[in-house]
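Study this:
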Amino acid sequence: YYVATSSFEYVPGVPIWHSRDLVHWRLIGHALDRPSQMALPDTAPSSTGVYAPTLRHHDGLFWLITTVVAGAGNALVTAEDPAGPGSDPVPIDIPGIDPSLSWEEDGTCWCVFSAGGIRAVRIDPKSGELLGEPVQMWSGSGLQYPEGPHLYRIGEWWYLLLSEGGAERGHALSLARARTLPGPFEPHPANPVLSHRSTSHPVQNTGHADLVQAKDGSWWMVLLGTRPRGDTPLYHGMGRETFLVPVRWEDGWPLPGPLELRSPAPE
C-alpha cells in the first residue's frame, strides 16, 4: 500500500509512504523533490504549497495530482516507481483546489476538484488538456466548503466521497453515488457519514478521506485529523495527522468508522 500526504510549504514535497499491512509505514521518497516540480516564492506565506495530493495507479504508472498554492497551481506528475523520481509537472488548467483522478473502463479520465462546489472535467492526463467544460457534480449536504473529492467505480455505482464543513472543528465526510457520469448523484440519507464535530473524541477535524480495499477483501479509509490539547479553544501542536478507519458496507454504501486510537505493535 502507498499513501501520499500533504506537505504545504515544506520541501521536498508530498512524502510517499509504503506499508504491507496498513499499520506499519515507512517513508520511501517524495513526489516533488526538486525546484522544477515545486518552486515557491520566498514570500509564500505559511500553509501555502501542496494541498491534498491524490495518488493513483493506472496503466502501469503512478499518477499524483495536487494543487501547489502560490506555485504551479494544479499539476500532475507520474512515476513508474512510487519512490520516484517523478516526472516534471503537467499543468492542469482548472480552477479551484483538491484535484483527484478516476478512469472509466474505456480509459476516459475524469478530474474532480473543488471550485464553488464539486466539479469534474474529462482530461487527457498525459498532456493535461481539458476534453470539455467542467460540470457540476454534487456539492455535499449543504455544509460550507465542499472539498477534497474522490470518485470511485465500485460494482455498478460511481461513488463520490467529499469533505465539507471546513477543515476545522466542523469537518465531516459525506457520500453520494450515481449509475453513470457525470450524474445525477444521489446523497446518502444520513450524511455526513463521519464527523467528530461537537464531540469529546480525542481526534477532531476529521475529513479529507480516501478509500482502499485490502488484499483480504476488507475496506478502509485514510483520513486526516488533529488531536487538540489544552483549554478552549484547544490547539494541536502536531498539526494534521493521518488516521485509518474500517469501512463497512450497508445497503450498497461504504460507511466509515469508528476511529479508534491504537498504538501499532512493534514489527
User: Anything to note?
Assistant: The mean pLDDT is 94.
